Amino acid sequence: GQQLNQSPQSMFIQEGEDVSMNCTSSSIFNTWLWYKQEPGEGPVLLIALYKAGELTSNGRLTAQFGITRKDSFLNISASIPSDVGIYFCAGQRNTDKLIFGTGTRLQVFP
Amino acid sequence: DAMVIQNPRYQVTQFGKPVTLSCSQTLNHNVMYWYQQKSSQAPKLLFHYYDKDFNNEADTPDNFQSRRPNTSFCFLDIRSPGLGDAAMYLCATSRATLGYSNQPQHFGDGTRLSIL
Q: Fewer CB within 10 Å, N side or C side of chain A?
């Protein structure tokens, strides 16, 4: 099935560093979602974006809906060890199914 | 407070022995989804119920079936599990208005299925 290009595939960073990841598509979406998944658990919704250009924050997390509607970005500021996990973007058109990104695995070292 | 609850969290079954996974929700969402997820890959949609209407993905094997007896519960039945069906199975729910938009999907913690 279709997947979105998500990068980087993995990140190994030190506690306190900022993190950036992005998701790109060849087609437009009208909703972008960012999920975090920890080992043995289901994905947890972090941020939902509904308008091109929208910038939304959730604590240390900030996500943006790209102007072209074909991409989205997630930033994590001042990372902490509990930020460890796999981050998935997902795009959606109207009531269509979610199209997931390939995931970014984040590892934070103290 | 878990709002999408999957049972059991871990399930072991024998090759070819039918197995049923369950999902319940307290969100009163009208759409329920079943996903299969393998080793750090993205979740793969198997099928979903929009209210009582069943929607199968084209590439979902016939071995996978689903039942939704009421708004709160949904079941995934695997009729004859093969070794390739070992995976995490995720249930998700959302509120949708037909032809308009979906609210974001909320996932349960999954059932990890092992096949002996």
A: C
For residues B22 and B50, give the distance between their C-alpha atoms in angstroms, rounded to a whole number. 17
Residue B58, phi then psi, degrees to nearest 5: -60, -30
B25-45 average pLDDT score: 94
CB-based contacts of A56: which residues, under 8 Å, 6+ apart? A47, A48, A49, A62, A63, A64
β-bridge partners, B32: B49, B93
Radius of gyration of chain B (CA): 14
Task: Write the single-letter amino acid at A55.
Answer: L
For residues B69 and B51, is the Cβ–Cβ distance under 8 A? no
**Contact status, residue B61 vs residue B78, Cβ threshold 8 Å:** no
Q: What is the pLDDT of residues B54-95, one digit of tens each?
A: 999 999 999 999 999 999 999 999 999 999 999 999 999 999
User: To probe the interface with A, which of B10, B39, B101 has the most A CB atoms within 10 Å?
Assistant: B101
Check B45 against A44: CB less than 8 A apart. no
Higher pLDDT pick, A42 / A96: A42
Please, which pLDDT band fits residue A1 given cuts at 50, 70 and 90?
low
Q: For residues B106 and B94, is the Cβ–Cβ distance under 8 A?
A: yes
A93 falls in which pLDDT band (50, 70, 90)?
confident
